[in-house]
Design a protein that fits this description.
Blueprint lengths: L7 H28 L4 H19 L5 H20 L3 E4 L10 E4 L1 H17 L6 H5 L1 H25 L12 H7 L6 E2 L3 E2 H29 L4 H19 L1 H4 L3 H4 L5 H15 L1 H8 L6 H30 L13 E7 L5 E7 L12 H12 L11 H23 L5 H24 L1
Antiparallel strand pairs: 1-2, 3-4, 5-6
Helix pairs in contact: 1-2, 1-6, 1-12, 1-13, 3-4, 3-6, 3-8, 4-8, 6-12, 8-9, 8-12, 8-13, 9-13, 9-14, 9-15, 14-15, 15-16
């Protein structure tokens, strides 16, 4: 079995739990938001009364229209991914020495998708409210279809891997969950993880956010200020993502996590269902915030999204210039860390310790969690479920930070004790400099 970050017991328990619990949770969340007034207690009482048969009754069967909507959307995004022009971008070198090449056209695809979707509605060609009306069937189809998709990825990893960045742990469950291939592709140019993570997952988030607005408008003749704040913040965040998409290809999701249930099923099902859930709740529960509170929440959310973007921008600038740049108007402080590759080669890497990255490690996760809170808080606090995404995101990012730290430690990039000593030395040096300046 391949080495894992957590103990084998924790790994197997978490893997089996997520494989078995996530699919039904998606359906239960949809049912609760749409049919149970957003009340977890109401859903619990229903299941308590009706038992497993009640659960079977609320699970909608994937309908032909659901499959058609998914197929049309997926095909449209795949065509945009292949056809739209974009800058050639190289990803980070892989553990086996491969350098993945991408075409950065996500922002163009995002703009074309939203303009097309809104135009279809505006000119009466297609009513997005249909998507909301068949949402349960769509999620049910995604749950089933994405499990089959992940199984095909598992078989592809065994039979026709796209590169040498592929391998098996010898355990079917682990291979299915974590994936076989790091960079699976169809042909030379169609990158599967870019499609699942960016073009289907993130794009469906934006499309569903707009869908919820349109559905509320058609139901009530207007869109509430709470829905507007939620939708604006989500769309700004997603716009930021596609603006920065090439940077995302250097993150753990793409450069380290293989294509399996964890990443691909998560992006195909979990993102469009869980990430959009605050807006799903607001469709039937419009809240009148008032101008002042709406603007306050909107400004706070926009500030968090900007800080999150600026964190990544500082890191990219630092890496691009090899540390020869200005961060907040000053030459950046850094850590020169040595590490050993799988081939036994010793290399060095620069770690930024200035700007936002001088505040704390993984500081960029803080404004990301806060941004999620601000686009959820328009729902106020009558029910807990709209805040599930905020809770989930917090757990996810804490776990991701731990996995990133452990990965760096296992690769001898930098050990935690060394980091603490270096950080303490930097703080001490700054304090001494400050005291000397103060005395002078």
């Amino acid at each position: 079995m391949a080495e894992t970050v957590h103990s084998p017991l924790v790994t197997y328990t978490s893997v089996i739990s997520l494989l078995t619990l996530c699919p039904p949770f998606v359906i239960l969340l949809w049912y609760t938001m749409v049919h149970a007034d957003g009340s977890v207690l109401q859903t619990f009482e229903y299941l308590k009364t009706h038992g497993f048969q009640g659960f079977k009754d609320i699970w909608p069967a994937p309908s032909p229209i659901a499959w058609k909507l998914i197929a049309c959307f997926g095909a449209f995004e795949a065509i945009l991914q292949l056809a739209l022009p974009g800058k050639r971008v190289e990803g980070p070198i892989s553990p086996t020495g491969n350098i993945p090449v991408y075409k950065a056209n996500g922002l163009q695809a995002y703009a074309v998708t939203l303009v097309t979707y809104l135009s279809l509605w505006w000119f009466g060609i297609f009513n997005p409210a249909i998507v909301y009306d068949h949402l349960g069937e769509i999620y049910s189809a995604l749950v089933v279809g994405s499990l089959v998709f992940c199984l095909l990825l598992y078989l592809k990893g065994h039979l026709a891997p796209s590169s040498s960045d592929s391998g098996s742990s010898g355990n079917f469950i682990i291979d299915f969950y974590w994936g076989m291939e790091l960079y699976p592709r169809i042909g030379k140019h169609f990158d599967i993880k870019v499609f699942t993570n960016c073009r289907f997952g993130m794009m469906s988030w934006a499309v569903l956010a707009v869908t919820y607005c349109i559905k509320q408008y058609e139901m009530n003749g207007k869109v509430s200020d709470s829905m507007l704040v939620n939708t604006i913040l989500m769309l700004v965040y997603i716009t930021k993502f596609f603006w920065w998409e090439a940077g995302y290809w250097c993150t753990m999701d793409i450069a380290h996590d293989r294509a399996g249930f964890y990443i691909c099923w998560g992006c195909l099902v979990w993102v469009p269902s869980i990430y959009t859930s605050p807006g799903m709740y607001l469709v039937n529960h419009p809240v009148n915030l008032g101008i002042q509170l709406s603007l306050l929440i909107l400004a706070s959310g926009l500030l968090c999204i900007y800080i999150n973007y600026d964190c990544d921008k500082q890191r990219q600038k630092f890496r691009r210039t090899n540390g020869k740049c200005l961060i907040w108007g000053k030459a950046p402080s850094k850590i020169v860390a040595s590490y050993r590759t799988e081939k036994g080669e010793t290399k060095t890497s620069l770690l930024l310790t200035s700007g936002w990255w001088g505040v704390s490690r993984h500081f960029h996760y803080v404004p990301e969690i806060l941004a999620a809170f601000f686009w959820t808080v328009p729902a106020l606090f009558n029910h807990f479920l709209p805040y599930f995404y905020v809770l989930f995101l917090t757990i996810l990012l804490f776990d991701r930070a731990k996995r990133d730290d452990d990965r760096c430690s296992s690769n001898r990039l930098i050990k935690f004790k060394q980091l603490r000593l270096i950080s303490s030395a930097l703080i001490s040096q700054r304090n001494n400099t400050y005291q000397s300046t103060k005395k002078g």
